[in-house]
């Protein structure tokens, strides 16, 4: 249940990204989200970060790079993508992040991939390309090319972050790495946020915008994170990982309910192909 709750919250974040596209600048939403999450987490992490200051001083370059890709670039790209494509397509591309992680693990960590893994990668990539055929939507806010491009960039950033996170875990405790990543990612966003405020101004503090910022900062950043990691501890990463593959389907359902977005016929065909490809590739990598 905890893994399902976390997955549902993350699916809702793609819906929130789409809903926020008309009223909140993507960079502002990213900064406000992570500022809120960091402000809530930091009081509980300050002592641990101080105690680990020597280890942090040794690994600070890796933390900066990982934070840039995992928080600054990843989340900003997701919210920019929300200006161009629907939540279902966003979640579908994001679901392929394990494929990119596998590729980077092969390139950077020397892990092996078999023909079954390659088949899984091709199925997932083909499914995403197939879903792009629904780009002829009557919705004038949909720009499939730009949206898929930004989401591919987002998934790539998340893959780089995940591989770097694995490396840093050998040097720093888990929660220290999380706390320092939150803080550094927010600091890296600060100059971008200041620039956007100077260009487009502060977002309107409406009830909807406050809800979207709160949802992203509290639910998607903290609650889902705690639930997910507790689920991994209880049932294992492999079982929790299979629950995560529900994200595109949950996003599609939530998009229909809250945004009135109906997935196109090609997307309905593509989604099972993407999930099948991911399952084949990731299961094969675990066996190896």
Report mean pLDDT, rounded to a whole number: 81
Radius of gyration: 19 Å
- Strand residue content: under 5%
Low-confidence stretches: 136-140
> What percentage of residues falls in helices of 4 or more residues?
over 70%
Question: What's the structural blueprint in terms of helices and strands?
Answer:
Layout lengths: L1 H19 L5 H26 L1 H6 L1 H22 L5 H9 L1 H13 L5 H17 L12 H26 L4 H27 L6 H29 L1 H8 L2 H12 L6 H23 L1
Helix pairs in contact: 1-4, 1-5, 1-10, 1-12, 2-4, 2-9, 2-10, 4-8, 4-9, 5-8, 5-12, 5-13, 6-8, 7-13, 10-11
Descriptive notes:
By secondary structure, the protein is mainly alpha-helical. The chain has 13 helices and no strands. The chain is globular, with a radius of gyration of 19 Å.
Task: Give a quick set of tags describing it.
single chain, 288 residues, 0% strand, 13 helices, mainly alpha
